[in-house]
Structures are given as C-alpha cells and as structure tokens.
Amino acid sequence: MSVKVIAFVQIKPGQEDAFVEAAGPCITASRAERGVLQYDLWREVDGEQRFLFNELYVDDAAVQAHMTSDHFRAFGTAARDLAAARPNITVTHAIDVAE
Predict the structure, then answer these.
(1) Which of 2, 52, 91, 97 has the smallest count of CB within 10 Å of its CB?
(2) Chain-wide mean pLDDT for the chain?
(3) Taking each helix axis from N to C terminus, what angle separates 16-31 and 70-80, rounded to the nearest 10 degrees?
C-alpha cells in the first residue's frame, strides 16, 4: 500500500538558504532509495513561507528504511538548528489515487 508523507518545516528567518543547502544531499540520496517513488521539496508562496517535503513510498517498510538512513539522520541533525519549531509531519495511506 502506497504511503504519502507530507512534512511542513518552519525555518528561522535568514536561515532559508542554509536549509535548502542542507536538504540537497538528503533529497538526492532519498530519491535513490529503494521504495521511494517521489521526494520533493517545495516552499509555501504566501503566509509563513514554510518548506514542504512531499514524499511518496511504495509501503511502510520503505518509510521506515528512509527514516533510519544515514543521510536522513545527518540532515535532521543539520536542520535542527535551522528550524523554528519541530516539523509538522502527516503520514497517509492511499485510498483512491490516480496512477
């Protein structure tokens, strides 16, 4: 069963470029992981201008593999000092999605 993960991250003012730079290696490595169908970083246009990770995995096991990967852990450590708050993460299972 496909799994969609959406994570909103609010970054401290002035740290946006550093966050994008820190995310780069994680994004590249994540896209190469077995079981990752999509791994994208977006930025909100209006409002708080939060960053959004839009992730799609083949199943829960792929999500767990990603969460324990060295590149994800390294990014988490690097991003911790850049974030204004803990990320807001939503994990969902597919019900009726276009293929």
Answers:
(1) 97
(2) 95
(3) 170
pTM across the whole model: 0.92
Is 18 buried (19+), middle (13-18) or exposed (0-12) by CB count in 10 A?
middle
The CATH number that domain 3-93 falls under is: 3.30.70.100
Tens digit of pLDDT for each residue in 58-79? 999 999 999 999 999 999 999 9
Torsional sign, CA 72, 85, 61, 52: negative
- Which residues 6+ apart lie within 8 Å of 40 measured at CB? 27, 53, 54, 55
Q: Domain residues of the chain, as ranges? A: 3-93
